[in-house]
Design a protein that fits this description.
about 800 residues; alpha/beta; 6-stranded parallel β-sheet; 22 helices; about 60% helix
Length: about 800
């Protein structure tokens, strides 16, 4: 039996703790090595294997979309599908580049084989699209199917190789995961084994120390008791223990010196107790370190599981993100309304100061005229320096509070009206959806202006119609009460005649403006001398100007200026200008009329020294119902139609009309330019028509006053007249009296004038002169009268001259009394 070496307590402790330290260093080294291998395996999995698998899977999807886009374009040859193919082709090439750029290393051999199959497939797709894009005729369906079969075969080969490559990378990923788990298990086992060895070494050390200390300690205790009891023999025995040579055991050495160091015995005992407590503390510390290592191992395992779960969630989220982004981009790009996302910029006080364009759609570019490249990333004050502060404040309120806003406003920097819906998609941002409503605002403004002018026109029309009616009523009352032939009757007749002519002129102006506006005016062109026509119109209006104490000066050349024009309409133009000048020129003023040739055109100017025209009125003077005199008194009178007729009739002849004035109180000048036409000398003015033969006339009119007054005019002209009150009465009287002419109203009760004419023609009145007497004088009315069998057309109220001309046979199916 081997004898335990007689070593000192310190030697035993050094051996025990040295062994424990070596074991601890070993476990640290093993743990560091295993953790390094785990880290390298995880890095290889994250940096090599996963990028390859993701790039290969993305390329699979892009190749499928490329094939679909190529086949769709080949079948439809639609440019939109061609653009989709070009986009899919660009993405496929980008996917190839991404796969080729993945890191090299173990497990990448299949990448080159897959890329080698992708390139022919892409080339086949490009070839199919190129064939479909060639000049007509387009490829047949059989050719498309053959090309598609080739394309499909190459696609399946490429997709199969890519799938195999993805599977290989997934296998490598699983192998790396298994390696990580294996290393983690080895780490746990190594730590447990080393910890057990450490505990065994420490336990053995403690046992050996206890066995080496116990015997001497008991002897010391007994010696101490003896010493306390005054037994010095025990101390002497310890001082001289049996054996040869000095002992190595410190306690024995202590017993030997016990007698000499009795006074120091208590101190030594305390030191021994402290050393035992320290040993226990070190043991407890080692136990805590062991538990910490176990907790770290469990944490590593939990982190590994969490990484795998996060990887799965990330893949799923990426798929949903791609789908959502594709739907959002399609909606964003195809919106017909403008859409933009902005980031708000605040000043130091937290108030909205500006905003930056983050993203805009193509409709934004179309509606605002601002290119997308110039807007995105820049502030609105840079893109639109004149933007109003109210736009920034409105959007700032949306970005700050999150409350959506809807409003319409005018963007002066763009010059358009917009309807805007603004909302906050995220903090400090706002998005706007806007519509261009400029045309709608313009239409609403035009409607409001038209409504205002309509109300103004009705008020003016009421005023102008009542003005002549008042003297007519008074004059008729004078004629009724005054003795026949007296001066009062003559004056009353003159008043009634003038006011009736004024009413006729107002109605004619209204009809002419309506015809010009609707394009219903028919010009009866002839070769006319403008110089002679201007002289005659000035002569006709000289009395009117003289009554107002306005001087008239006429300056025309001695030679004729020939026009191809309607003489009645040209006379109407010059007459309206003279009437206008006479109304606005005060007593003692002057009106100057000139006619000349300039640049191959005839120019007529009417200049007055009257009230002048304000600049605001000058811009709209030629519009219907516009007058310079807009006061309640309306001393100048009229409906504001004369100048509108001047411009309309001038433009119908291919000419122009304009007005100039230095301002109120400085007179005005009106200029009309007409195309000048060379031609033969105008025919001599026709001699006044002689009165026609006396005729038997049947008047068919349902209004008693109109019928009796017309019959009186005809009787005074020497005709024999009979009156019928409706269409049936007219047909009956025509059968019995056989009249030479029938003047028939169109708007009759029961049977209208067209039906009366048709029945009279059917009853054998082929030689009877049928004259339509109506207030309608449009070309459509003339056509209906001709089709019903009328020979002529008179517009109410018809003048005696027009009646005589029609009855004499000089007017046939023309609208007398008012130019057509």
């Amino acid at each position: 039996m081997l004898r335990r070496p007689d070593l000192s307590v310190g030697a035993w402790l050094s051996l025990g703790f040295g062994a424990a330290a070596l074991l601890m260093a070993g476990v640290v080294a093993v743990a560091v090595g295993l953790l390094g291998r785990i880290e390298r395996a995880e890095r290889r999995q994250m940096e090599l294997i996963r990028p390859r698998a993701v790039a290969a899977a993305a390329l699979q999807e892009q190749l499928l979309r490329l094939g679909i886009a190529a086949r769709t374009y080949a079948l439809t040859r639609d440019e939109r599908h061609h653009a989709a193919f070009r986009e899919a082709l660009a993405r496929a090439r980008s996917g190839e580049a991404a796969l080729e750029a993945t890191p090299d290393g173990e497990g990448h051999a299949g990448r080159a084989e897959a890329l080698a199959l992708v390139a022919p497939y892409r080339d086949a797709a490009e070839a199919l699209v190129a064939a479909a894009s060639a000049a007509p005729p387009p490829p047949s369906t059989a050719e498309v199917l053959a090309a598609e079969i080739t394309l499909t075969e190459r696609r399946e080969a490429a997709l199969a190789k890519l799938a195999a490559y993805v599977a290989a990378q997934e296998g490598a990923s699983r192998a790396a995961t298994a390696e990580i788990l294996s290393l983690q298990g080895r780490s746990r086992r190594s730590v447990l084994a080393v910890a057990a060895a450490m505990l065994a070494a420490l336990g053995a050390t403690a046992l050996l120390v206890v066995r080496g200390v116990r015997g001497p300690a008991l002897a010391l205790v007994q010696a101490s008791r003896r010493l306390a009891a005054g037994d010095h023999l025990g101390a002497a025995v310890l001082a001289t223990p049996p054996g040869v040579g000095p002992p190595r055991n410190e306690l024995r050495q202590l017993g030997r010196a016990f007698g000499r160091m009795a006074l120091d015995l208590g101190e030594r005992e305390r030191r021994i107790v402290d050393q035992g407590a320290e040993l226990h503390a070190q043991h407890d510390e080692l136990q805590v370190q062991h538990e910490e290592l176990q907790a770290q191992q469990r944490e590593l395992q939990s982190q590994s599981d969490e990484l795998r779960a996060q990887d799965e969630r990330l893949r799923d989220a990426l798929g949903r993100l791609r789908e959502s982004e594709a739907r959002y981009r399609k909606l964003f790009e195809n919106l017909s309304e403008g859409f933009a996302v902005h980031e708000m910029v605040w000043d130091e006080a937290g108030n909205p100061a500006d905003y930056r364009f983050v993203e805009v759609n193509p409709a934004f570019e179309r509606l605002t005229g601002v290119p997308r490249a110039r807007a995105v990333g820049r502030r609105v004050t840079e893109v639109l320096p004149g933007v109003e502060k109210e736009w920034i404040e409105r959007y700032g309120a949306v970005a700050k509070t999150g409350a959506p806003a809807r409003f319409e406003s005018f963007a002066a920097a763009i010059g358009r009206w917009f309807e805007v819906v603004a909302f906050r998609p995220e903090p400090n941002h706002f998005a706007v959806l806007f519509f261009d409503v400029t045309d709608r605002h313009a239409a609403e403004q035009a409607l409001r202006e038209a409504d205002r002018r309509k109300d103004e026109f009705l008020a003016v029309l009421s005023h102008e119609l009542r003005n002549p009616l008042a003297p007519i009523v008074s004059g008729l009352e004078v004629i009724r009460r005054a003795p026949p032939g007296s001066g009062a009757v003559a004056r009353a007749r003159a008043v009634v005649d003038r006011q009736v002519r004024q009413l006729v002129r107002l109605v004619d102006d209204l009809l002419d403006v309506t015809r010009i506006t609707r394009g219903k005016v028919s010009l009866r062109r002839a070769r006319v001398d403008l110089v002679a026509l201007v002289r005659h119109v000035c002569e006709d209006n000289a009395a009117m100007l003289a009554d107002r104490d306005v001087a008239l000066e006429v300056r025309v050349p001695d030679r004729p200026l020939w026009l191809d024009a309607d003489p009645a309409r040209i006379s109407q133009i010059v007459g309206n200008l003279l009437h206008n000048a006479g109304k606005f020129t005060p007593s003692g003023g002057r009106v100057t009329v000139t006619a000349e040739e300039r640049g191959g055109r005839a120019v007529v100017r009417v200049r007055d020294t009257g009230a002048g025209i304000a600049p605001a009125v000058l811009a709209r003077l030629f519009q219907p119902f516009v007058q310079a005199d807009d006061s309640l008194a309306r001393s100048a009178g009229g409906l504001g139609l004369g100048l509108a007729l001047v411009r309309g009739l001038a433009e119908l002849h291919g000419g122009t009309a304009r007005a100039e004035s230095a301002g109120e109180g400085k007179g005005a000048e009106f200029t009309v330019e007409l195309p000048l036409r060379p031609g033969a000398a105008a025919a001599a003015r026709a001699a006044p028509a002689e009165a026609g033969p006396r005729r038997r006339v049947l008047v068919v009119e349902d209004q008693d006053d109109a019928a009796e007054s017309l019959a009186d005019v005809l009787r005074l002209a020497g005709h024999e007249v009979e009156v019928a009150r409706d269409g049936a009465d007219g047909i009956r009287r025509a059968k019995t009296s056989r009249p030479d002419a029938v003047l028939c109203d169109i708007g009759l009760p029961g049977m209208d004038g067209y039906e009366v004419a048709r029945r009279l023609r059917a009853d054998g009145h082929a030689g009877t002169l049928l004259v339509a007497l109506t207030g309608y004088a449009l070309p459509e009315d003339l056509r209906r009268a001709r089709e019903a069998g009328f020979d002529a057309h008179l517009t109410k109220p018809a003048s005696p001259e027009d009646l005589e001309a029609v009855l004499a046979g000089r007017e046939r199916l023309e609208s007398a009394g008012a130019p057509a």
